[in-house]
């Protein structure tokens, strides 16, 4: 018996959500009195793999093969299921990233495992059962889901679990499972990344703006605030529908659900569909010229005022502090 | 080209969600149900691909008789025929098994789902169906083009996109960008009444998980308002009190 965590790399590097998911999996392993192993697929430096030990992995299975260089969910699911079999892992933990979302159901189906997606805290352990709290109704509620199957797959939401350094080093082992040709039918033609920017789903601070900004030409005030805070940008649905911003920035019930430490909403009214996607933010700040805007009802802090005056002032104040 | 579109019947996005029976069941009283918004995108794309005699669109829903209004709306939008698997959709694993069982011997070239259902948000059904049928799946597509027997799909990734080429048959979960949602016109509404809607029995599926209870998010305390002229004060609060910057 053991717990297995999939350590997803981005262009050969591990990012913060990986350490979150390893910390989380380690805490599950502890509560089951067992050890944690990680599986990594693709080219990652040996030192980075061993460093997964400092978040609690005792071993890392490292899969490198020409065919598996790039993420193909079918093939990666086979590899993770093979790793789970090899280690007799009962619990497999995967980050609820875009790739993780494609991967988890395929892994679960291979293992005949119940799947709880988007966990927001540690599961309750009761004999052979794990009970997981996960988001439902697009952030309007949580569903407490019991996994009754022998094997279980859990995906963890970004920013839902803190990093826990245990200070160890993992044993790295090569792992070469055979992958069926049929699993490799998908071809990756291109990967386009708007690099060096914080990405929205796992950002700690999100600066978001709505129709109150009047038009795309005014977005620079939002961008400057985000830049000063090291934040990711987001927007309301009408803003992306109008083509002022890309769809990938649209948050809410029919967009991305975010759970940053700080969500700053500028010129957004706070419609129920928007709130659904941001309600698990730890702190919400609302800037709106209408004191009756519904967003104030769910905000922690608010400024009633004109965004075109308030936002540049805020940006200047942050820059001034940073400059000190 | 034969396309299967999986549609889910969900509470309208404006719904306030509450629970009954000791928080073990959603309170459906007074809720309006709609086609899951992402499934509307899938359906619109399927209709566009099939237009001009290029193919057929079948919609499938796993649900009890009450979902038929939603299914008829899909027919009115332009699907050719519909299937309802007569069972309460217990969870995504149950739903996916019904869909895979139905699709198994029908030679669909493309199976479309929405990216996620806005009630259970699992992003599970597409991957499960792909695995059960042993064909490729893409879970969060923002663009989809078909060229003969291959699909070119743009998939969302953190901070960017990935372009994939996948052989058909395949399962694709669609998000915004794949198609403009279509709405039924008068002719569609009239013709929907006579389009075939068959009801099939559900197969047995082992239970792997169950929802034991629901919770609502903790309500937030009252908002602390800061004067528009005092940006500094807001930063102090965020730094010293909320400790988020
Ligand atoms: C099926 C469906 C799904 C939806 N899903 C989503 C979703 O996922 N996400 C989402 O965001 N929406 C969603 N919506 C849309 C949602 O209902 C609202 O229409 C939308 O959130 C409103 O966007 P907004 O707040 O930017 O614009 P508005 O509602 O127009 O609000 C603009 C706000 O800006 C304020 N303002 C104006 N000028 C200034 C100024 N100078 N300074 C400061 N404040 C100013 C106004 O007081 C107002 O409160 C959905 C709708 C439907 C029907
Ligand atoms: N009861 C259902 N019947 C048919 N299709 C469904 C059903 N539930 C979910 N789906 C499909 O699966 C997609 C993803 O759902 P989920 O895995 O619950 O997020 C939805 O967008 C639908 O296309």
Major sheet description of chain A = 7 strands, parallel
Main β-sheet, spatial strand arrangement of chain B: 11-10-9-12-8-1-6-7-13
Strand content of chain B: 25-35%
How are the strands ordered across the major sheet of chain A? 5-9-4-1-2-3-10
Domain Electron transfer flavoprotein alpha/beta-subunit N-terminal (chain B): 23-209
GO molecular function (chain B): electron transfer activity
Protein name (chain B): Electron transfer flavoprotein beta subunit
Keywords (chain B): Electron transport, Transport
Give an overview of the whole structure.
- The complex is a heterodimer of chains A (324) and B (245).
- By secondary structure, chain A is α/β, with parallel strands linked by helices.
- Chain A folds into two domains: 2-184, HUPs (Rossmann fold, 3-Layer(aba) Sandwich); 205-322, 3-Layer(aba) Sandwich (Rossmann fold), CATH 3.40.50.1220.
- In chain A, 27% of the residues lie in helices and 27% in strands.
- Chain A is built from eight helices and 16 strands.
- Chain A has helices at residues 16-31, 46-50, 73-86, 98-111, 220-229, 237-241, 272-276, 307-323, and strands spanning 2-6, 36-41, 59-63, 89-95, 114-119, 124-126, 129-136, 141-147, 152-156, 171-174, 187-193, 205-209, 232-235, 262-266, 283-288, 301-304.
- Chain A has a seven-stranded parallel β-sheet with strand order 5-9-4-1-2-3-10, sandwiched between helices. Chain A has a five-stranded parallel β-sheet with strand order 13-12-14-15-16. A three-stranded antiparallel β-sheet of chain A has the order 6-7-8, with no helix packed on it.
- Chain A is elongated and about 60 Å long.
- The termini of chain A are far apart.
- The mean pLDDT of chain A is 95.
- By secondary structure, chain B is of the alpha/beta class.
- Chain B has one domain: 3-Layer(aba) Sandwich (Rossmann fold).
- Chain B is built from six helices and 15 strands.
- Chain B has helices at 37-50, 68-77, 92-103, 125-133, 186-192, 231-241, and strands at 2-6, 9-11, 19-20, 25-26, 33-35, 56-63, 81-86, 110-114, 137-147, 150-157, 160-167, 170-174, 197-201, 209-215, 224-226.
- Chain B has a nine-stranded mixed β-sheet with strand order 11-10-9-12-8-1-6-7-13, sandwiched between helices. Chain B has a two-stranded antiparallel sheet with strand order 2-5. A two-stranded antiparallel ribbon of chain B has the order 3-4.
- In chain B, a hairpin with a 2-residue loop joins strand 10 (150-157) and strand 11 (160-167).
- Chain B is globular.
- The model of chain B has no long low-confidence stretch (mean pLDDT 96).
- Bound molecules: flavin-adenine dinucleotide (FAD) and adenosine monophosphate (AMP).
- Residues 210-212, 236-239, 252-255, 267-269, 271, 273-274, 277, 288-290, 293, 306-308 of chain A line the site of flavin-adenine dinucleotide.
- Adenosine monophosphate is lined by residues 6-8, 36, 38-39, 60-63, 89, 92, 95, 113-114, 116-117, 120-125 of chain B.
């Amino acid at each position: 018996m053991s717990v297995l965590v999939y350590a997803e790399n981005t262009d050969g590097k591990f990012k913060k959500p990986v350490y979150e998911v390893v910390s989380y999996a380690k805490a599950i392993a502890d509560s089951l009195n067992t050890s944690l192993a990680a599986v990594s697929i693709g080219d990652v430096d040996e030192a980075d793999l061993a460093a997964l030990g400092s978040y609690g992995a005792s071993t890392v299975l490292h899969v490198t093969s020409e065919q598996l260089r790039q993420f193909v969910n079918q093939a990666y699911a086979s590899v993770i299921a093979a790793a789970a079999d090899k280690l007799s892992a009962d619990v497999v933990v995967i980050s609820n990233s875009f790739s993780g979302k494609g991967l988890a159901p395929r892994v679960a189906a291979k293992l005949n495992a119940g799947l709880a997606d988007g966990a927001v805290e540690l599961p309750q352990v009761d004999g052979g059962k794990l009970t997981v709290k996960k988001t439902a109704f697009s952030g309007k509620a949580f569903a407490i889901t019991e996994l009754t199957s022998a094997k279980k797959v859990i995906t963890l939401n970004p920013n839902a679990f803190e990093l826990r350094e245990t200070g160890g080093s993992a044993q790295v082992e090569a792992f070469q499972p055979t992958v069926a040709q049929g699993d490799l039918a998908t071809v990756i033609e291109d990967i386009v990344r708007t690099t060096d920017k914080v990405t929205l789903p796992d950002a700690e601070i999100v600066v978001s703006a709505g129709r109150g900004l009047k038009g795309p030409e005014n977005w620079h005030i939002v961008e400057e605030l985000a830049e000063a805070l090291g934040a990711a940008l987001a927007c309301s649905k009408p803003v992306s529908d109008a083509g002022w911003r890309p769809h990938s920035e649209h948050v809410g019930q029919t967009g991305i659900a975010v759970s940053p430490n700080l969500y700053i909403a500028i010129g957004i009214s706070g419609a129920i569909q928007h709130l659904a996607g941001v309600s698990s933010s730890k702190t919400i700040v609302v800037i709106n010229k209408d004191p009756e805007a519904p967003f104030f009802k769910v905000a922690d802090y608010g400024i009633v005022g004109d965004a075109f005056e308030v936002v540049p002032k805020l940006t200047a104040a942050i820059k001034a502090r940073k400059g000190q | 080209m034969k396309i299967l579109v999986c549609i889910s019947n969900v509470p309208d996005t404006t719904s306030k969600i509450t629970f009954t029976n000791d928080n073990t069941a959603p309170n459906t009283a007074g809720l309006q149900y709609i086609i899951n918004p992402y499934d509307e995108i899938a359906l619109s794309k399927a209709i566009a691909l099939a237009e001009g005699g290029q193919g057929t669109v079948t919609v499938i829903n796993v649900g009890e008789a009450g979902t038929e209004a939603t299914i008829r709306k899909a027919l009115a939008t332009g699907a050719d025929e519909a299937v309802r698997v007569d069972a309460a959709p217990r969870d995504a694993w149950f739903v996916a098994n019904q869909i895979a069982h139905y699709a198994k011997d029908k030679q669909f070239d493309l199976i479309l789902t929405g990216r996620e259902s806005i009630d259970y948000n699992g992003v599970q059904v597409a991957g499960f169906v792909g695995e059960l049928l042993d064909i490729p799946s893409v879970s969060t597509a923002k663009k989809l083009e078909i060229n003969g027997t291959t699909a070119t799909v743009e998939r969302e990734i953190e901070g960017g996109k990935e372009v994939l080429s996948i052989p058909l048959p395949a399962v694709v979960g669609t998000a915004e960008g794949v198609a403009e949602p279509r709405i039924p016109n008068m002719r569609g509404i009239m013709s929907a009444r006579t389009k075939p809607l068959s009801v099939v029995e559900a197969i047995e599926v082992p239970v792997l998980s169950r929802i034991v209870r629901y919770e609502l998010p903790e309500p937030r305390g009252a908002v602390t308002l800061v004067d528009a002229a005092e940006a500094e004060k807001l930063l102090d609060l965020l730094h010293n009190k909320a400790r988020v910057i």
